[in-house]
UniProtKB/TrEMBL annotation:
The lineage of its organism: Bacteria, Pseudomonadati, Pseudomonadota, Alphaproteobacteria, Hyphomicrobiales. This is Adenylate cyclase. GO terms for molecular function: adenylate cyclase activity. It comes from the Bacteria. PROSITE patterns: GUANYLATE_CYCLASE_2. InterPro entries: A/G_cyclase (IPR001054), Adenylyl/Guanylyl_Cyclase_3/4 (IPR050697), Nucleotide_cyclase (IPR029787). Residues 110-217 form the Guanylate cyclase domain. SUPFAM superfamilies: Nucleotide cyclase (SSF55073). GO terms for biological process: cyclic nucleotide biosynthetic process; intracellular signal transduction.
Length: 265
């Protein structure tokens, strides 16, 4: 099964970062895909890659073996042109310890999702070398603002960053600071924020709140920061932050409709 690791800011000789992996396998006329966030530990020949959560999977039936082969070749070519490096070793699954495996803790946080707008077109225009450099500066700028606002990075996925904050005001302030910082790199971002509970199991963070935040970010346009009604409710006492109604939206894969608000100023 060919496997690929998203390089982003870090190269293969750097340990202790999060990224994204993608795998493909063809069985006759069927193509099996697997992808998700990973954690990289070690460097060089001792490097190990672990799924941070159970990966997503998809089965594509192509009717003929030739179509499946063509699909696989095309998919691999796209990954190689999108800053993925071939990954020869296996992607492991962390096993929970005997004491921590059954432990399930609940936590409440403001979840921030940052995503670059038009990243594919930008990468094609700049070329691999310049785009890799820009992405390095992008992640450095995001992490600087996260540290300043006391945000906690959870995972990076391609050109996106997911982080948590103890308060919605801190998350919104950080979003504005990141927007200002990355514009100097010629980049525009969209941001989504949601406040909700998530679970910590075996050291991993899981929960619907993360998915809701991601869907909210997808509704934003370039330069916009959108927040959920949960964030608005928690901001009741924060009069210096102005919000405007952005309407009711159906978030893909999320039950019911959600009212979103745009951060102004």
């Amino acid at each position: 099964m060919p496997k690929f690791l998203r390089v982003g800011l870090h190269q293969s000789n750097v340990s202790g970062y999060t990224s994204k992996a993608w795998c493909v396998r063809r069985v006759g006329s069927v193509v099996l895909l697997k992808w998700g966030a990973v954690e990289v530990q070690g460097a060089g020949k001792s490097r190990k890659v672990y799924w941070t959560h159970l990966p997503q999977e998809k089965t594509i039936r192509c009717r003929t073996a030739q179509r499946a082969q063509d699909y696989t070749r095309s998919a691999i070519a796209r990954r190689r042109s999108h800053d993925y490096e071939p990954l020869s070793g296996a992607i492991g699954v962390r096993r929970n310890s005997a004491n921590g495996g059954a432990e399930l803790k609940q936590a409440l946080a403001t979840i921030l999702i940052v995503d670059i707008v038009g990243s594919t077109a930008k990468a094609a225009k700049l070329g691999d070398a310049r785009w890799t450099k820009v992405m390095g500066l992008y992640y450095a700028a995001v992490r600087k603002e996260l540290k300043t606002c006391r945000g906690k990075e959870v995972v990076t996925t391609g050109d996106g960053v997911l982080a948590t904050f103890k308060s919605p005001a801190a998350g919104i302030s950080c979003a504005a600071a990141i927007q200002k910082a990355v514009r100097t790199l010629g980049l525009e971002i969209r941001v989504g924020l949601h406040a909700g509970e998530y679970s910590i199991s075996g050291g991993e963070m899981v929960g619907l709140a993360f998915h809701i935040g991601t869907r909210i970010a997808a509704k934003a346009r370039a330069g916009e920061v959108l927040v959920s009604s949960a964030v608005k409710d928690l901001l009741a006492a924060q009069s210096q932050i102005r919000l405007s109604d952005h309407g009711s939206h159906q978030l893909k894969g999320v039950p019911a409709r959600w009212r979103l608000y745009r951060v102004e100023g």
